[in-house]
Write the structure tokens for this entry.
Amino acid sequence: AQSVAQPEDQVNVAEGNPLTVKCTYSVSGNPYLFWYVQYPNRGLQFLLKYITGDNLVKGSYGFEAEFNKSQTSFHLKKPSALVSDSALYFCAVRAPGFQKLVFGTGTRLLVSP
Amino acid sequence: GAVVSQHPSRVICKSGTSVKIECRSLDFQATTMFWYRQFPKQSLMLMATSNEGSKATYEQGVEKDKFLINHASLTLSTLTVTSAHPEDSSFYICSARDLGFGTGGTDTQYFGPGTRLTVL
């Protein structure tokens, strides 16, 4: 069965500092991995995905994520956080041959001025 | 990027009435759409997978007679909450699967902005 773990309910970071939002996954076969961001009372916005290829994936708004197969992780990173990055972040995985995404529980990112 | 719209964004109704929510993929065709429900401060719960031209596949515990899903075209899926009750109040989010043929991307789900349903 597929599963995603986001071990931190909330991450606090000061504006201008680097940020990391953690995600680990469990899936049979090669995973398709995604990050989405949700602002209050809004749907999810796609940030980036890993399907195959380079382990470092670059996405929207300066975010990137690194796929680490040995650690089964796909942590989201940004070199310099903005206050406007404050939102709820979801990691998701899809197993090959399946349509459904399995989501983590979400991590709230709070960037302070 | 691919855009998914959802209508209405907010609806308030009386208990016992039915409410229809529309989900549209605006710049790509989606043979598969998904309907989720999200409770406050929680993750998304998949309710059903909607396949164009066929019956939806419901997740365990989701009443198919209460949550009617229709996917009549490649760009439109609808969710009808029948005989709504206060416990059905929630944030409903749809997504559409873009296989990438029209947008140049690769197999990605794009989400609508959500519908806040309040049943009085």
